[in-house]
Amino acid sequence: MPTLVYSGTAAQFGTVDSATVVVEAEYFMAANIIFKNSAPKPDGKTPGAQAVALRVSGDKNAFYNCRLLGFQDTLCDDKGRHFFKDCYIEGTVDFIFGSGKSLYLNTELHVIADPGLSFITAQAREYETEDNGYSFVHCKVTGIGTGTYLGRAWKSRPKVVFAYSTMDSVVNPLGWSVNLQPAREKTVFYGELKNSGPGANPAGRASFTKQLSEAEAQPFISLGFIAGSSWILPPPKV
């Protein structure tokens, strides 16, 4: 697989512009490509160490069998409707973040071991009128350790769903975080449906999360979530 790699950091360019690749076009498709930010792993002390591998800011963008490699802020799922299928995304903290409306299908989310807290998503919805969120369907959460949260409430009204996914013990039993802001317990939408694995036990989940019924989850787990039937095409055969 070809690799597109650069070492930009937030200290140099600002977080969102540190990306190795930035997509702003509509109807962009990538298949069988590695997007990588080769900046060193943040040490938790050096400011501006965030380093984005891919920023997706276009509408109707699709990614097939792509690998996104980085540490903090690997994927800026910035805005627009996006489809990720058969991909691999790795990182440490907030490694999928932004205000996109995206469906992730059969994709592996791999947490790189970190002695501190780790968060997979930092979905950035702030207002009830915003139509965005992330849905992970038939995905895998893998990694080493036990302290990783599926998401944190970076902004006030994040919307994230995991359905029919497998979760290793890397996932913290609480599952989700309100980012030390208790008021957000009433505004977040963190939902799960029929996940499996040692990290998916609903008994230990934070009280503000939702175990969804099939009917409640339906709007999130089909292509209709991103109006995909009107624009998604299969990947090229190469």
What does this structure look like?
This protein has a single domain, classed as Single-stranded right-handed beta-helix, Pectin lyase-like (Pectate Lyase C-like, 3 Solenoid). The model has no long low-confidence stretch (mean pLDDT 96). It has 2 helices and 22 strands. It is mainly beta. It has an 8-stranded parallel β-sheet, with no helix packed on it. It has a 7-stranded parallel β-sheet with strand order 1-4-7-10-13-16-19, with no helix packed on it. A 7-stranded parallel β-sheet has the order 2-5-8-11-14-17-20, with no helix packed on it.
As a whole number of angstroms, the C-alpha radius of gyration is 16 Å
Helix vs. strand class: mainly beta
Content of β-strand? 35-45%
CATH architecture: 3 Solenoid
By CATH reckoning, the class would read Mainly Beta
- Show unreliable segments: none
Helix content estimate = under 10%
CATH topology: Pectate Lyase C-like
Molecular shape: globular
Largest sheet: 8 strands, parallel
Number of DSSP strand runs: 22
Report how far the terminal alpha carbons are from each other.
Answer: 12 Å
Number of helices, counting only DSSP H or I runs of 4 residues or more:
2
